[in-house]
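In the lab's daily routine, each protein ends up as an entry in a very long ledger. A line of letters takes care of the sequence, but it says nothing directly about the fold. The three-dimensional part falls to structure tokens, numbers that each stand for a local backbone shape. The outcome of that step, for a single protein, is printed below.
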Amino acid sequence: MQTTWKGTISFGLVSIPVHLYSATQEHDVPLHQVHAKDGGRVRMKRYCEREEKEVPYAEIAKGYESPDGRTVTLTDEDLADLPLPSKKVIDVLAFVDAGEIDPLMFSKAYYVGVADQAAAKPYALLRDALTASGQIAVTKIALRTRESPAVLRVHDGTLVLQTCIWPDEVRPAAGIAPEGDVTVRPQELRMARSLMDTLSEDFDLAQLHDDYQQALQQVITARLEGVELPHEEEPGEAPDNVIDLMEALRSSLKRAKGGRGHTAGPDEDEPEEEQPAPRKRTPAKKPAAGKAAPARSAAPAKKTSTAKTSTAKTTTAKTTTAKTTTAKAAAGKTATGKSTAPRKAS
């Protein structure tokens, strides 16, 4: 891994010679500027306006133009000899809780490695002290042509220096959030929290990947092979105005549970609006033979008795109707001259 910076961490009277290494890398498909008409490569040339000719990169320096039009040329030696204390030293200014630094200020991250074996023990001391305290160290560092605030923290047993932007470089957020009083009902908040919990189940940040780069590579491959370009189905338009927030949250929660293969049980449902809890009815227990039913079961017992009585009456009515029909049929047979079977004496 290529060294980005060499210097020393100043921790009180303790000095730790260290090297910085870029901790991140971006996976971009290299695209060039070409002439759309014929595909010819378009290159940026370093052109000197005074001499009206192209100049090599080795002759390029940095310059500053003053308001009155004068230009000051700064060479690499001028920038290297700046009277800056943080040029080669990462001076620890304070130790604070990680929550005191707004993540909005974080910029690029660098792994911090020791420059030699003699720095191993003070390196481990600072690393273990940060781990035990749960804090981060606030520092300043000059990288290339810029001095930046930075923090030292621990990641996977390794010190990491994360540069930050200056506090006055953070733009104010005034006027961006919705103005006026916006009321959020408790049931809406509970539904949102339920949706958050569902979406967070079994989430693994390491499984994320860059869909844009993958799709771009597919288009490039299709162009090279002269085949039809892959097309993604156009998603439906998102509603620009949510009329029923609770219904939108409820639908989102069902979709999230369905996408994770979650099947709601009979007693599992989304939070609803505040309603008084219904009183549960306890079914009456059948009394044992020879024992009277408890008094508190009297009401359900009456309902049961009434139902049984109605059923019994219906059965009796059906039986009576059946007997009457049988009797009429028997009488009809007798009237036609046919004998009936004698009844046995009981």
